[in-house]
Amino acid sequence: MPTRLLLVADTHVPRRARTLPDDVRRAAAAADLIVHAGDWVDESVLDELGGSGPLLGVWGNNDGPALRERLPEIARADIDGVRVAVVHETGAAAGREKRMDAAFPDTDLLVFGHSHIPWDTTTPGGMRLLNPGSPTDRRRQPACTMMTLTLADAGIHDVRLHEVSRA
Questions:
Q1: Where does residue 158 fall: left (phi above 0), alpha (psi -120 to 50 degrees), or beta otherwise?
Q2: What is the C-alpha to C-alpha distance for residues 77 and 121, in angstroms, rounded to an integer?
Q3: Domain ranges of the chain
Q4: Peptide bond preceding 21 in cis form (omega within 30 of 0)
Q5: What superfamily does domain 3-164 belong to in CATH?
Q6: Is residue 167's pLDDT more than 70?
């Protein structure tokens, strides 16, 4: 049976938004697993998303001691035969694919955040790299974003980038 994932990162609540956008809440309720790649900023976001269902998350550079006590720097899980890793920061875009192949050998899917820039590439070693952007702070992007995908039969399917309404 496929596993539906919601990917989010860089929620920055309450600095960039007072609360999570409704689009994120709806997607979290529909997901089998919520993956958050750091920069929650406030523990209330961890509690809210964790109350929506299973969660795989890491802390980011803007997360304080309370979140760092509750979350790892790197999270890993094997989901439907897909080896998943989550980290907040991967460094500069230039050379990212080769660096991540070296840093995460035995990983099929790496979810990351930090830049607020959506990213979807495949490394020379075959690892899929996904950054969902930010649902609350678009920075230089045309819209706030999140991602959904399905894992099934050791494969990554139906990766979709979604615009998030802040209204």
A1: left
A2: 20
A3: 3-164
A4: no
A5: Metallo-dependent phosphatases (3.60.21.10)
A6: no
In the block, tokens 């399917």 appear at 157
The model's confidence at residue 14, banded by pLDDT at 50, 70 and 90, is: confident
Determine the Cα–Cα distance for residues 31 and 91; give it in Å rounded to an integer: 29
Phi then psi for residue 33, to 5 deg, are -150, 135
Cβ atoms of residues 146 and 137 within 8 Å: no
Closest CA relative to residue 96, chosen from 58, 57, 122: 122
22-30 vs 43-52: helix crossing angle, rounded to 10: 40
Q: Retrieve residue 89's tokens.
A: 């920061």
Element spanning 43, H or E? helix 43-52
Tokens 């929620």 belong to: 11
Percentage with pLDDT > 70 across the chain: 99
Q: Whole-angstrom Cα distance, residue 125 to residue 136?
A: 32
Among 63, 45, 49, 38, residue whose Cα is nearest residue 5: 49
Q: What's the token pair of residue 52? A: 């929506």
Average confidence score pLDDT of the chain:
96
52-78 confidence digits (pLDDT tens)? 999 999 999 999 999 999 999 999 999
pLDDT digits (tens, 9 = 90+) for 109-122: 999 999 999 999 99
